[in-house]
Specification:
The chain is an alpha+beta fold. It has a single domain (36-142), classed as ATPase, nucleotide binding domain (Nucleotidyltransferase, domain 5), CATH 3.30.420.40. The chain is 36% helix and 10% strand. It has helices at 40-48, 52-59, 68-78, 80-88, 96-104, 114-117, 132-135; strands spanning 16-18, 32-33, 94-95, 112-113, 123-124, 129-130, 146-147. The strands form three sheets. A three-stranded antiparallel sheet has the order 2-1-3. Helix 3 (68-78) packs across helix 4. It is globular, with a radius of gyration of 16 Å.
Length: 149
Amino acid sequence: MVRPAWQLSASTTRARESLPGTPTLAPLSPVVVWHCRRALPLVERLRETGVEPRIRARTGLPLDPYYSAGKVRWLLDNVEPVAAAARRGALRIGTVDAWLIWRLTGGRNHLTDATNASRTLLYDIARGAWDDDMLGPIPRRRLEPSSSP
């Protein structure tokens, strides 16, 4: 006889960036969705410098505003509550999975797995770690740690 069991499952999409602040766990801006193109001018400036082959070699991704890096940079540069939280050290950067884990654990855990981290343009896929060169002004200490899937 199979006994019934309670199960909880969740499915998230990775292409939505969330920037909650501590200690409230409340988002500091609306979620930025995958098709947001506000970072296009930044991406075009970077392309002009010739860094795209190096970025693709490290991240496996083309330089495109579709990915998290440009969106996070745009938010840091243009949304004062996000910039202020970063200056105070109270900013967490992550996709929806990290935000859900943070909310479900009452702020104790803020993490993601390598598959989500690898879609940010901030993660070195060969080393399996956040890439300091790719991070630039994005505060590393505020990214979620990645764990193996």
